[in-house]
């Protein structure tokens, strides 16, 4: 058998040859771009901060006014919420808020993928508020209607029930909704999010593809329709919270913290040896997070630190930070959820026990701070109980996925969507046993190289969806090439 390093080199070269036909829409700088694992270079200089368009309502005069006006609203303020992905973790936590504070939150639309039984229970609970109900799996529409009747949800209630491809969009554009929680996974969340923006609904962003893949198409729509997009994940919420009251031009740097994932205590050489000698041990380790129990996909992304690379791209689109002004810092305790540095060298951070409910609540309630019943929340944060925290820079040799994300982000356009889709496919195939751990960055890098031939700098929504599908197939082709080499 060939030495492993030669095998990986041959595999990468073979996969790079799998370029599918495409149009000549790329700029010379993209065609000649060296997509390597060295895309992350920490930059500390006195160069002027470069600002870009941003999705989040911060760092602009009108955003400051909107936050102030909202915070000074009459005490009777309320939010009517549409929940996309209501049966998932984001959706069920959103409904927890509505239960705990019905004086603040009402639920006017609910949409699920296929879990008709839980959806029917949710509709029955909020039947006096709900106006639109959706289930994206059209084959479950009949079962949903039966379950609604069995749960008494249709007694004296008046709401529309929609199934299939239009279900999420119908819920996202419900007339009564003030804010839409986008808890839908994958590019399936793009179309309803666009529809919600065009309908003038604020967005509590829990679907990462909206900006990572769709940023070039989404930002102009937010500007056109004057819609607020508030982040629901902990890192970007921390940045968003730290930026409240910060005037235009005052942010110098974004500091994204990372747990470090399953391999944070291994050096690059030791991890490489484990990958070569004990690949199944590595697979088991990569699917187990050292801090908490998460979904399988995000756990592997945490192990490769691609999750942080994707968050770098999202931070760029949310806050208008240049990639040279976004740092990644490994913080194993996950207490500092992220921070910003201002032009006067002040660093403003958001701290707390790890709890996804806080950023989700703030994304829906912004700019308000909502007090929750004590039994609905984690114990209050205590610095004395915490004791100490540690920080270190990421090992770029151990985490090549971070560099790939920076490289894709700097290119922009459809390259970030290609990166994201290739990662999702490679991650899935790794978990299924079709890939080894080292194949993940190799497959992503090959997809990025191949995508140069049909890169689009200013894509439409359909372009973004097409690239997503193409990148997934490219990774499958990579796997087929590997099989042929090993045969």
Automatic annotation (TrEMBL):
Keyword Metal-binding: yes
Signal peptide (UniProt feature, chain positions): 1-17
EC number per UniProt: 1.1.1.267
Domain 1-deoxy-D-xylulose 5-phosphate reductoisomerase C-terminal: 230-319
Source superkingdom: Eukaryota
UniProt keyword Nucleus present: no
Pathway: Isoprenoid biosynthesis; isopentenyl diphosphate biosynthesis via DXP pathway; isopentenyl diphosphate from 1-deoxy-D-xylulose 5-phosphate: step 1/6
Domain 1-deoxy-D-xylulose 5-phosphate reductoisomerase N-terminal as annotated: residue spans: 81-215
Span of domain DXP reductoisomerase C-terminal: 351-473
UniProt keyword annotations, A-Z: Isoprene biosynthesis, Manganese, Metal-binding, NADP, Oxidoreductase, Signal
Pfam family, one: DXPR_C
SUPFAM superfamilies tied to this protein: 1-deoxy-D-xylulose-5-phosphate reductoisomerase, C-terminal domain (SSF69055), Glyceraldehyde-3-phosphate dehydrogenase-like, C-terminal domain (SSF55347), NAD(P)-binding Rossmann-fold domains (SSF51735)
Cofactor annotation: Mn(2+); Mg(2+)
Catalytic reaction equation(s): 2-C-methyl-D-erythritol 4-phosphate + NADP(+) = 1-deoxy-D-xylulose 5-phosphate + NADPH + H(+)
InterPro entries linked to this entry: DXP_reductoisomerase (IPR003821), DXP_reductoisomerase_C (IPR013644), DXP_reductoisomerase_N (IPR013512), DXPR_C (IPR026877), DXPR_C_sf (IPR036169), NAD(P)-bd_dom_sf (IPR036291)
Sequence similarity: Belongs to the DXR family.
Name of the protein in its database record: 1-deoxy-D-xylulose-5-phosphate reductoisomerase
Originating species: Aureococcus anophagefferens (Harmful bloom alga)
